[in-house]
């Protein structure tokens, strides 16, 4: 019984021993996916100071506090400026009595409808735009009722084919009865959402290309990864989520401070996963003309601030006044917890000098990932010395020509083996009865990937000396000759007989 109590207590303290939650927690980011492939990021936050954080969809604002506590995979319906959770079993596309499609071929006794007599005019719908606007603003009329009235007032609906009816109903439901599904933010879902929103900002990196990058780089828990990512921090966040807080990620950035922090927040990383990311300025690695190292050492605010922070720290007078104005003790505790977390991050965050020192000789990285808008050849040449020998590297680019230059350079200078240049291609299918076919619109290319394994930078492809080769050949010759093996007394005699045996033609 004591062992069970100890295990139960440790599982509550250590987040790694507990399984991930299947419900949405406060402060988490989720994805709302609609049937028309629209995707929105939403953060589940409670109302503060009488104001509830809102999400704008279809020119209307919806509160996100009701997302807290819902399970992933739940279906929501947008009703009159509110997100209403539907019962379990409901689909994103609502069921309708006329939505069934007859896949059987018509016989002589049955007549099949067709669209030959349909005329594209604005007179087929009996409801006007003003009447539809009034029904949408009326709180007593639901979206399903609006769809039914639109179908009833359509003079050409009954003459349509079953496929045309289903398409017509689905189109009206997405406009007047919109639904979405709650999806957890993972590496694949975040990549897909960013790709749909603006693929150019993430260098046209698809989810299948991201999976290949993580696989070829051989990143696991406990790895030490060096990554140069200009894809809005997408690869950095995916690495942190994959490693689970075990190991370290040295993320190279340009500019005054790391950007794309808001995108990394979409991964809902915990404290240990956030702490595994160590930012390294490109000036430390690329050695610009300006003495960036001395400049950054003088402006190392993290080091100065960490030296001045004392624990336990005293609250400042204006903070104490703010605490006294709070209504409940629960709000005070939440505020103090956030402040403690902020100070804990400052105390545990490594400085720029410490981060750069961890990349020097003897402390090199296990994997190298480059997905940058800069020249891949120059970037790879600069960052390859920070990679340990016999470790993999991955270079991603939208175009093939820069990677071809890297390929030739690696082969010519004998810096790597198992060099491969490949492109990724993905096709999405629509799978429906009698309507299975590839999607009409899809991305043409998901980029190109260059992979390889680093060799010793001094010897290149290791070549053995002639004296050493003679010793190896002599030793191998004695083994193949009359030397007897253990538990095989006739080993030498059998080898001699095999040599004298004539060949069979």
Automatic annotation (TrEMBL):
Belongs to the TRM6/GCD10 family. The keyword Iron does not apply. Keywords: Nucleus, tRNA processing. The keyword Nucleus applies. Its main location: nucleus. GO terms for biological process: tRNA methylation. PANTHER family: TRANSLATION INITIATION FACTOR EIF3-RELATED, TRNA (ADENINE(58)-N(1))-METHYLTRANSFERASE NON-CATALYTIC SUBUNIT TRM6. One of its GO terms (cellular component) is tRNA (m1A) methyltransferase complex. Residues 99-112 have a biased composition (Polar residues). This is tRNA (adenine(58)-N(1))-methyltransferase non-catalytic subunit TRM6. It is found in: Nucleus. Residues 1-22, 99-121, 476-505 are annotated as: Disordered. Pfam families: Gcd10p. InterPro entries: SAM-dependent_MTases_sf (IPR029063), TRM6 (IPR017423). It comes from Chaetoceros tenuissimus.
